[in-house]
Protein backbone atom coordinates (compact mmCIF):
# COMPACT_ATOMS: atom_id res chain seq x y z
CA UNK A 1 0.00 0.00 0.00
CA UNK A 2 1.71 3.17 -1.18
CA UNK A 3 0.93 6.33 0.64
CA UNK A 4 1.80 9.82 -0.33
CA UNK A 5 3.14 12.11 2.38
CA UNK A 6 -0.15 14.04 2.25
CA UNK A 7 -2.39 11.08 3.26
CA UNK A 8 -2.83 9.69 6.76
CA UNK A 9 -1.61 6.11 7.35
CA UNK A 10 -4.44 3.58 7.63
CA UNK A 11 -2.69 1.35 10.20
CA UNK A 12 -2.20 2.85 13.72
CA UNK A 13 1.21 1.13 14.00
CA UNK A 14 2.28 2.78 10.75
CA UNK A 15 1.07 6.10 12.12
CA UNK A 16 3.14 5.64 15.28
CA UNK A 17 6.20 4.65 13.26
CA UNK A 18 5.79 7.63 10.96
CA UNK A 19 5.31 10.01 13.90
CA UNK A 20 8.35 8.57 15.70
CA UNK A 21 10.45 8.74 12.57
CA UNK A 22 9.52 12.34 11.97
CA UNK A 23 9.11 13.94 8.57
CA UNK A 24 12.85 14.30 7.93
CA UNK A 25 14.08 10.68 8.39
CA UNK A 26 15.05 8.64 5.45
CA UNK A 27 14.27 4.95 5.04
CA UNK A 28 17.97 4.21 5.65
CA UNK A 29 17.83 6.05 8.98
CA UNK A 30 14.65 4.21 9.94
CA UNK A 31 16.30 0.91 9.03
CA UNK A 32 19.37 1.77 11.10
CA UNK A 33 17.16 2.73 14.07
CA UNK A 34 15.16 -0.49 13.76
CA UNK A 35 18.35 -2.54 13.49
CA UNK A 36 19.75 -0.85 16.61
CA UNK A 37 16.48 -1.50 18.46
CA UNK A 38 16.53 -5.10 17.26
CA UNK A 39 20.08 -5.50 18.57
CA UNK A 40 19.03 -4.09 21.96
CA UNK A 41 16.01 -6.39 22.19
CA UNK A 42 18.07 -9.40 21.07
CA UNK A 43 20.72 -8.62 23.70
CA UNK A 44 18.08 -8.23 26.41
CA UNK A 45 16.47 -11.50 25.34
CA UNK A 46 19.78 -13.39 25.42
CA UNK A 47 20.63 -11.95 28.85
CA UNK A 48 17.19 -12.91 30.21
CA UNK A 49 17.51 -16.39 28.72
CA UNK A 50 20.95 -16.81 30.33
CA UNK A 51 19.60 -15.60 33.69
CA UNK A 52 16.71 -18.07 33.54
CA UNK A 53 19.16 -20.87 32.74
CA UNK A 54 21.36 -19.86 35.69
CA UNK A 55 18.37 -19.78 38.05
CA UNK A 56 17.25 -23.21 36.81
CA UNK A 57 20.75 -24.65 37.27
CA UNK A 58 21.05 -23.18 40.79
CA UNK A 59 17.61 -24.54 41.70
CA UNK A 60 18.61 -28.02 40.49
CA UNK A 61 21.80 -27.84 42.56
CA UNK A 62 19.82 -26.74 45.64
CA UNK A 63 17.36 -29.61 45.20
CA UNK A 64 20.22 -32.10 44.79
CA UNK A 65 21.88 -30.78 47.97
CA UNK A 66 18.59 -30.89 49.86
CA UNK A 67 18.07 -34.52 48.86
CA UNK A 68 21.64 -35.46 49.70
CA UNK A 69 21.70 -33.80 53.11
CA UNK A 70 18.01 -34.01 54.12
CA UNK A 71 18.76 -36.55 56.83
CA UNK A 72 21.68 -34.58 58.26
CA UNK A 73 19.68 -32.99 61.11
CA UNK A 74 18.06 -36.29 62.02
CA UNK A 75 21.40 -38.14 62.02
CA UNK A 76 22.95 -35.38 64.11
CA UNK A 77 20.22 -35.73 66.75
CA UNK A 78 20.84 -39.50 66.95
CA UNK A 79 24.57 -39.21 67.63
CA UNK A 80 24.14 -38.70 71.43
CA UNK A 81 22.07 -41.91 71.51
CA UNK A 82 24.91 -43.80 69.85
CA UNK A 83 27.41 -42.21 72.24
CA UNK A 84 25.35 -43.37 75.22
CA UNK A 85 25.14 -46.93 73.90
CA UNK A 86 28.89 -47.04 73.29
CA UNK A 87 29.54 -45.67 76.79
CA UNK A 88 27.32 -48.41 78.25
CA UNK A 89 29.25 -51.09 76.40
CA UNK A 90 32.54 -49.62 77.67
CA UNK A 91 31.60 -50.43 81.29
CA UNK A 92 32.48 -54.13 81.67
CA UNK A 93 31.17 -54.73 85.21
CA UNK A 94 28.03 -52.62 85.24
CA UNK A 95 25.34 -53.69 87.68
CA UNK A 96 21.85 -54.44 86.39
CA UNK A 97 20.64 -51.25 88.10
CA UNK A 98 23.28 -49.18 86.30
CA UNK A 99 22.39 -50.80 82.98
CA UNK A 100 18.68 -50.18 83.53
CA UNK A 101 19.33 -46.55 84.43
CA UNK A 102 21.48 -46.16 81.29
CA UNK A 103 18.83 -47.78 79.11
CA UNK A 104 16.18 -45.39 80.45
CA UNK A 105 18.46 -42.37 79.86
CA UNK A 106 19.23 -43.57 76.32
CA UNK A 107 15.54 -44.13 75.61
CA UNK A 108 14.82 -40.55 76.75
CA UNK A 109 17.55 -39.28 74.40
CA UNK A 110 16.11 -41.28 71.52
CA UNK A 111 12.57 -40.08 72.25
CA UNK A 112 13.76 -36.45 72.33
CA UNK A 113 15.65 -36.92 69.06
CA UNK A 114 12.57 -38.36 67.38
CA UNK A 115 10.31 -35.60 68.72
CA UNK A 116 12.74 -32.89 67.55
CA UNK A 117 12.43 -34.41 64.08
CA UNK A 118 8.62 -34.58 64.28
CA UNK A 119 8.45 -38.37 64.67
CA UNK A 120 5.56 -39.00 67.08
CA UNK A 121 4.40 -42.30 68.56
CA UNK A 122 0.94 -43.71 67.86
CA UNK A 123 -0.17 -45.58 70.98
CA UNK A 124 -3.96 -45.33 71.30
CA UNK A 125 -5.38 -46.02 74.76
CA UNK A 126 -7.88 -48.85 75.18
CA UNK A 127 -11.36 -47.86 74.06
CA UNK A 128 -10.14 -45.54 71.26
CA UNK A 129 -12.08 -45.93 68.02
CA UNK A 130 -10.12 -48.06 65.52
CA UNK A 131 -8.62 -45.84 62.78
CA UNK A 132 -7.45 -47.85 59.74
CA UNK A 133 -5.29 -44.89 58.68
CA UNK A 134 -3.17 -45.09 61.85
CA UNK A 135 -3.83 -48.58 63.23
CA UNK A 136 -3.39 -52.07 61.87
CA UNK A 137 -5.69 -54.67 63.42
CA UNK A 138 -3.80 -57.86 64.20
CA UNK A 139 -6.78 -59.66 65.69
CA UNK A 140 -10.38 -59.15 66.71
CA UNK A 141 -11.15 -60.34 70.23
CA UNK A 142 -14.29 -60.46 72.33
CA UNK A 143 -14.16 -57.66 74.90
CA UNK A 144 -16.37 -55.81 77.33
CA UNK A 145 -16.18 -52.57 75.37
CA UNK A 146 -17.71 -51.02 72.28
CA UNK A 147 -17.11 -52.88 69.00
CA UNK A 148 -14.34 -51.63 66.66
CA UNK A 149 -12.36 -50.02 69.45
CA UNK A 150 -8.77 -50.69 70.44
CA UNK A 151 -8.38 -53.33 73.16
CA UNK A 152 -4.58 -53.34 73.38
CA UNK A 153 -1.54 -51.99 71.55
CA UNK A 154 0.90 -54.73 70.58
CA UNK A 155 3.42 -52.37 68.94
CA UNK A 156 3.48 -48.57 68.78
CA UNK A 157 3.15 -46.91 65.44
CA UNK A 158 4.82 -43.68 64.37
CA UNK A 159 3.91 -40.53 62.46
CA UNK A 160 6.39 -38.21 60.81
CA UNK A 161 4.63 -34.87 60.73
CA UNK A 162 1.13 -36.02 59.63
CA UNK A 163 2.23 -39.03 57.58
CA UNK A 164 2.07 -42.55 58.99
CA UNK A 165 5.56 -44.00 59.10
CA UNK A 166 4.35 -47.25 60.67
CA UNK A 167 0.80 -48.02 61.86
CA UNK A 168 0.24 -49.15 65.44
CA UNK A 169 -0.40 -52.90 65.72
CA UNK A 170 -3.57 -53.33 67.80
CA UNK A 171 -6.19 -55.83 68.82
CA UNK A 172 -9.74 -54.69 68.24
CA UNK A 173 -12.98 -55.45 70.10
CA UNK A 174 -15.27 -57.82 68.20
CA UNK A 175 -18.90 -56.92 67.54
CA UNK A 176 -21.26 -58.42 70.10
Descriptive account of the structure:
It is a single chain. The strands form 2 sheets. Strands 1-4-5 form a 3-stranded antiparallel β-sheet. Helix 3 runs antiparallel to helix 4. It is elongated, with a radius of gyration of 37 Å. It is an alpha+beta fold and 176 residues long. The protein has helices at 12-21, 27-69, 72-89, 96-116, and strands at 119-122, 135-141, 150-155, 157-160, 163-166, 168-173. Mean pLDDT is 88; it is low at 1-9.
Largest sheet: 3 strands, antiparallel
**Strand content bin:** 15-25%
Strand order of the largest sheet: 1-4-5
Number of distinct helices: 4
Mean pLDDT across every amino acid position: 88
From N to C, what is the helix and strand string? Answer: HHHHEEEEEE
Broad shape: elongated
Considering DSSP H and I runs of 4 or more, what fraction of the residues is helical?
Answer: 40-55%
Specify the structural class: alpha+beta
Compute the CA-based radius of gyration.
37 Å
- Termini separation: 94 Å
Give the uncertain stretches in residue-range form: 1-9
* Beta-strand segment tally: 6
Outline the secondary-structure elements.
Blueprint: H1 12-21, H2 27-69, H3 72-89, H4 96-116, E1 119-122, E2 135-141, E3 150-155, E4 157-160, E5 163-166, E6 168-173
Helix pairs in contact: 3-4
Key words describing this protein structure:
176 residues, alpha+beta, three-stranded antiparallel sheet, three-stranded mixed sheet, disordered N terminus
